[in-house]
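Lab meeting, action items carried over

1. Structure of the two-component assembly. Owner: GW. Status: complete.
Input record:
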Amino acid sequence: QSVLTQPPSVSGAPGQRVTISCTGSNSNIGADYDVHWYQQLPGAAPKLLIYGDNNRPSGVPDRFSVSKSAASVSLAISGLQAEDEAAYYCQSYDNRLTAVVFGGGTVLTVL
Amino acid sequence: QVQLQESGPGLVKASDTLSLTCTVSGGSLSDYYWSWIRQPPGKGLEWIGYIYHSGSTNYSPSLKSRLSMSIDTSKKKFSLTLTSVTAADTAVYYCANVDREHYNFDRWGLGTLVTVSS
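Predicted assembly:
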């Protein structure tokens, strides 16, 4: 059971918008620790997608964005493309566990 | 751009010690923290620990009793040692650099699969 909770799977048609939630508690996201997102294409290493307050590394399109509320952060992917089909992980820090924590991952299927 | 490459045995016997090395290119070790993350087959990501260029460390509480990390700044390598391994330690092991401001994993190695055999 992961400290950060993500839905196991989401899906959407090309061109649509999907969101992936990452829900924590007052010892991680609710304590205002940064939340970061990674994309893992099939058979590949994870890649940094978004870090901190909606910062995208060079090369990541602005179709990817995040929003935050209380102890939850959501990744939004607009204009869905076939190449977005991947697993997505959120990551933060937990001050009760004194550890970096990941969400369990969400598999995005583009229909 | 920082690039990372993991190396080490792909097969370790249960109860033995797992040792991996990460070689860094394209960056200075003092610019980042350095970390190991693992992923059991078909499962999610698990943070293992950080090491700083000074040699100080921060380990996952769940692995702390079996874990040791070291760094060689002259060779631009850092290493992981995990003792008394079991089948539960079978995973793809990734090394990554850590942004010192946001604590995100910036760049990742390709990963190396380590299988613990009985």
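2. GW to write a short summary for the group page. Key points so far: The interface with chain B takes residues 2, 34, 36, 38, 45-48, 51-52, 55, 57, 89, 91, 93, 97-105 of chain A (CB under 8 Å). Chain A has a mean pLDDT of 96.
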